[in-house]
Amino acid sequence: MSTPVGPISGGCQCGEIKYVVEGTIFGLSVCHCHDCQRQSGSAFGLSLIVASDSFELIQGTLKTFETTTDSGRTKTCAFCPECGNRICNRTESRVSIKAGTLDDVSWLKPRAHLWVSRKQPWVDIPDGVTCYEFDSDG
Q1: How many Cβ atoms from other residues are within 10 Å of residue 24's Cβ?
Q2: For residue 65, what pLDDT is reported?
């Protein structure tokens, strides 16, 4: 993954929410947990993992709710109150930005697959990609 120069921007489907990312980016993860399958309406979710202080909301107000993850941690889920588009999930140390909300996704390449114990049987993971049976530490 070659991170673009300058801030990374994104927003919701209706345009009400806009954000920028400047700072530490840990990478793009493909997550096969039950929450990501439900939230994405697909076999997995794609999240750009960044440090908490790297994410800045620049337009709109996110609506939130808390839930417990498959690993037992509490996360805060944030979405646009107008269109319902999930923007990110927050823990104390990081923000998992839903990759589909980024303005430019051309530079993204997954660094790891998480919760492969729950992946759909038809999903093929390329050789050489880091896989975690459950979660990772970041």
Answers
A1: 12
A2: 96
For residue 84, pLDDT beyond 90: yes
Which CATH superfamily groups domain 8-131?
glutathione-dependent formaldehyde- activating enzyme (gfa) (3.90.1590.10)
SS3 118: helix
CB atoms < 10 A from the CB of 55, how many?
23
Q: What is the phi/psi pair of residue 126, to 5°? A: -60, 150
Residue with tokens 């975690």: 132
Length of the chain: 138
Distance (Å) of CA 21 to CA 11, 39, 63, 105: 11, 22, 19, 13
Angle, vertex CA 78, rays to CA 105 and CA 29, nearest 5:
40
How many angstroms separate the CA atoms of 128 and 8, rounded? Answer: 27
User: Is 103:10 a contact under the CB 8 Å cutoff?
Assistant: yes
